[in-house]
Amino acid sequence: MNLTFQHLPFEKIADMAENRLAKAERAAAEAHVSGCSRCSEQLARVERTINLMRTDEATDAPRGVLASVMNMFRSRAVESEPSLVRRVLAALNFDSTTLAPVYGVRSGQATARQMLYSAGENDVDVRVQPAGESWVVSGQVLGECDGGSVELEDGAALVVAAELNELCEFTLPAVPSGSYKLRLRLNDVEVEIPELQLKA
Predict the structure, then answer these.
(1) I need a labelling partner for 91 at 20 to 30 A (CA). Which of 54, 185, 191, 194 fits?
(2) What burial letters (b/e) apply to 67-102, b meaning 16+ CB within 10 Å?
(3) Residue 52 has pLDDT above 70, yes or no
(4) What is the per-residue pLDDT across 126-183, written as a single tens digit (0 to 9) for each?
């Protein structure tokens, strides 16, 4: 592959940010990034995101408070007029559980899982990590994003929700093991990940 005339795929940039490339492959990617402002900016964004996720020490609001707030908004949503929202079903492109173990820096994170979904003009990076007997779902919308919200449903019932921050990242409160549906609302687009399994 000629890296001079072609942008690096997101998967390679993510591997580069997490230092997972072989020495020769990393040298070629670094040479490309040094001369390509687009790939350089994307690498910087991914590195910032990874750093924020690793250093996040935010405390979740109590579950009862979250449920009360979500019930207030749910009743308003039922009363509002239907809007023209384009629904997109996300397709899984990458799942870290399919990779062979990597020893060294990442070997302590064997229980964490990373998935990359394609959803129309956007990609969605989803990370799932155990927190005691519960699971924390976090991630980021990649591509054009002006904010929005994320919801995790158990069957037809809303379990937890969160707003995207200025970098289009999200972290949902911890939930029990089970099968969930993840829905992202981005302006006039609704992205759905229909089956997200949270289990060991």
Answers:
(1) 54
(2) eeeeeeeeeeeeeeeeeeeeebebeeebebeeeeee
(3) yes
(4) 999 999 999 999 999 998 888 999 999 987 788 899 999 999 999 999 999 999 999 9
In angstroms, the CA 145 to CA 78 distance is 26
Tokens in use for 158? 């809303």
User: Quick one: tokens of 96?
Assistant: 């870290």
Q: Which residues contact 119 (CB under 8 A, 6 or more apart)?
A: 88, 89, 90, 91, 184, 191
3-state class percentages of the chain: helix first, strand second, coil last, to nearest 5: 30, 35, 30
* R_g of the chain, CA atoms, integer Å: 18
- CB 47: neighbour CB atoms within 10 A? 15
Q: Which two tokens stand for residue 147?
A: 């904010």
Give the alpha-carbon dihedral of 26, 123, 147, 50, to 10 degrees.
-30
Task: Tell me which amino acid residue 195 is.
Answer: E
